[in-house]
Amino acid sequence: MKYDFKAIEKKWQQRWEEEKVFSAKDDFSKPKFYGLIEFPYPSGAGMHVGHIKAYSGLEIVTRKRRMQGYNVLYPIGFDAFGLPTENYAIKNGVHPRVVTDKNIARFTEQLKRVGFGFDWDRVVDTTDEKYYRWTQWIFLKMFDNGLVFRDKTLVNYCPSCKVVLSNEDSQGGKCDICNSDVVQKSKDVWYLRITEYADKLLEGLDTVEYPQNIRMQQENWIGRSYGAFVNFKIKDLEETLRIYTTRPDTLFGVTFMVIAPEHPLIEKHRARIANIDALDAYKEACAKKTEFERTQLTKDKTGVKIEGLSAVNPVNGKEIPIFISDYVMMGYGTGAIMAVPAHDERDYEFAKKFGIDIIEVIKGGNIEEAAYTGDGQMVNSEFLNGYDNKKDSIAAMLVYLADKGIGEKGVQYKMKDWAFNRQRYWGEPIPIVHCEKCGMVGVPYEQLPLRLPEVENFEPGEGGESPLAKIDSFVNCTCPKCGGKAKRETDTMPQWAGSSWYFLRYIDPLNDDCLADPEKLKYWLPVDWYNGGMEHVTRHLIYSRFWHKFLYDIGVVPSAEPYAKRSAQGMILGANGVKMSKSLGNVVDPLDVVDQYGADTLRTYVLFMGEYGTAAPWNESSVKGCKRFLDRVADLPAKVKGEGETAALTSALHKTIKKVSSDIEEMKFNTAIAALMGLLNEVDKVESITKDEFSVILRLLCPFAPHLCEELWEQMKGEGLCSLASWPTYDEAKTVDAMVEIALQICGKFRGTLMISKDAGKDELLAAAKAEPKIASMLEGKTIVKEIVVPGKLVNIVAK
RNA sequence: GCGGGUGUGGCGGAAUUGGCAGACGCGCCAGACUUAGGAUCUGGUGUUUUCCACGUGCAGGUUCAAGUCCUGUCACCCGUACCA
């Protein structure tokens, strides 16, 4: 029967709010559970069903934990700085503060209507000056600890957004925000020295519970490799060319060298180089390409030989040519490589194209056809000949290099330092003052927050500078150190800043004396379980781990890692199986579903639709199926009679408690719900159920459909709130049926079943199987070769 | 290319240590109640003509027994992109 979900939802959402049912208490005597979801960016579009799924996973886990007696922290907040809001503000002539407040209010309303058990007393807003004061504070601490620097460099610049982008924000040569083509531009930018934490970020992965794919993505992103730096002499000059290689074992196979087109060697020796015009032309052509175009040309190798400079192989004295080519990047290693065409695919391709010698130094492949990158016996390598594996030859070569002073072992990372700035208004002002005498000086801690000034016009300047640069009263200031005239930094922080530490502020959101009370941090950290999208597992997840590790090193937080466990939800696709988008018209508004079917149906459906971590298409009919299930649950009170446990339902009930309990822990919500549906089907088969049995059903279902369960709990005269009732426990012995069905097989083929006591022994099972008429007739006249009996499962008789 | 993952009915998806493939839901079919059904309830539903047989991308293999283990192969998805 249909029930009045609208009235019920309103009633219980009010009760929960009035009684602060989901507010975490700072009661350090209780066991704690800190569940964290990625806080939303409060966009003007409002919530998406994807948000609902993203928050529903830990919603279930935290509700279960609460019922299990944990002190639960499940907070929510808003990551509200950022470009979309600013662009909307510019376009409509409204202050971003106003837009942000409006959007946050809307999101809050929507989240509450779905009935999430968030702690609404701890909401954080990254654009609140009481919050960003501490974002600036952390930045200054990093500045004081040498982790902030400024450098002039080629940056990814979006001409449309007029903003400098990090490599992470311009992947594929497209701006992450507006998707237009990114160009290269030289600019002074701020950097955070995240590479200093590369090893700690890698090694910390051993101490946390991340799924394999997330761990791999982080490892690849950091990209640590071990190898060697080797110095090659330039012939006839007092000059060396330093290279990085992971394969020092192949040094005898070097037949040429390649340096990046921007390598300083060329500038330094212009006069000696005969074909300098050709090199300049090549370099210019490369500079015009974006990083994306440059990496797109994977197949066709290009380059120019430097006429007038050549190198000397330090291990055998052979003279080798030097080329420039764009397949060598200035930003990795030393911007120069030794090329071993016999054992590196790129070098092989290049050598073939330019007709360079290919010398085999490792046996095992056919270098006439392709580079051989595998292991094998060393040849043509003097003292290395005879070694038969990479590991040993590398070790021997490293000793040799060190002895002769030609090189040394080294480590390289793919990860680069974090470009940490935006030339926009709606972000945290970087709290630095530029003084002519003192240089860069941090704003004194007691002067934080450094507030965003009011401006007339939020548009960035034509040169790409921040709108803050136009406010003289903001820019002109005195140096905190010497009191002389100084200018304020006008860049703001990137959006990743506020989200790099928000989980710490939830622990003590109103503290004005410090980022959060150390005692509270000690109790609540680390976050026990963090769920979010796969799109954030490299950037946000690495950035926030970096900040946290820094704060740990300076003694602000008590745990080396912020998140003990991480999981990720899959996307909700449109009904047509593709990503939901406005232009395709396949977007589902969660509030429409709440209006039509109720919040409990929406909550149940987003978890029932498929495996939590996998993308699944929206299906309105299936939504109705979940509604039907809840309608049937709403009918149950008519069936409740008496108390205690009834024989008919006991094992089904205990099995379901077991299944739902363990499935929730593994985020297998779809099968947990399926088990509850199955239990309801069992209930349909019996005349009546007891109050105690009904109570178990309500408590198991409560995390998924809390409004309905609270209502039925009240009708049943349950004690207190269902959301705070104890999580049901099961008796393992009662999960087993007295009679079990045994599969009967002959020669491995299924031939029927047999009902027998669960305690039946092997002999008894075999006898019973042979007594079955069908089995007996099939065995007639045959010789039994083998008999396999698996108690509780099957009997298989092999006969000829 | 490399790294991670996935292939099961008409659809979304289930299947401890190998042990009755297709749980649960959708859809579909039939029936009931209805003036009506796009509501609700009951029954059925992998393929095939009942038994038999065949069925988890494809081809082999191990085993009494394979969706599950092994070898090879194909397709798709996600991440990454000349990282020396």
Q: Short summary of the structure?
A:
This protein is an alpha/beta fold.
What's the number of helices? 25
Largest sheet: 7 strands, mixed
- Strand tally: 27
Distance between the termini: 58 Å
Structural class category: alpha/beta
Cα gyration radius (Å): 33 Å
Shape: globular
The unreliable regions are none
Q: Which percent range describes the beta-strand content?
A: 15-25%
Q: Percent helix among the residues? A: 25-40%
Mean pLDDT: 90
Your description of this structure?
The chain is of the alpha/beta class and 800 residues long. Helix content is 35%, strand content 18%. It contains 25 helices and 27 strands. The strands form seven sheets. Strands 8, 9, 10, 11, 12, 13 and 14 form a seven-stranded mixed beta sheet that branches. The chain has a four-stranded parallel beta sheet with strand order 2-1-20-21, covered by helices on one side. The radius of gyration is 33 Å and the shape is globular. The structure holds one RNA strand of 84 nucleotides.
Which labels suit this protein?
single chain; alpha/beta; 35% helix; four-stranded parallel β-sheet; 800 residues; RNA-binding; 25 helices; 27 strands; seven-stranded mixed β-sheet; globular
Q: What order do the helices and strands come in, and which of them pair?
A:
Blueprint: H1 5-18, E1 32-37, H2 49-67, E2 71-73, E3 75-78, H3 83-92, H4 96-114, E4 119-125, H5 129-144, E5 148-158, E6 163-165, E7 183-192, H6 198-203, H7 212-222, E8 225-234, E9 240-245, E10 256-259, H8 264-268, H9 276-288, H10 291-296, E11 304-312, E12 319-324, E13 336-339, H11 345-354, H12 390-404, E14 407-412, E15 418-419, E16 432-435, E17 439-442, H13 472-475, E18 476-478, E19 485-488, H14 502-505, H15 518-524, E20 529-532, H16 539-553, E21 566-568, E22 572-573, H17 590-597, H18 599-608, E23 616-617, H19 620-634, H20 647-665, H21 669-685, H22 691-701, H23 706-715, E24 739-746, E25 749-757, H24 762-771, H25 773-779, E26 784-790, E27 794-799
Parallel strand pairs: 1-2, 1-20, 3-4, 10-12, 20-21, 22-23, 24-27
Antiparallel strand pairs: 5-6, 5-7, 7-15, 8-9, 8-11, 8-14, 10-13, 11-12, 16-17, 16-19, 18-19, 24-25, 26-27
The structure holds one RNA strand of 84 nucleotides.
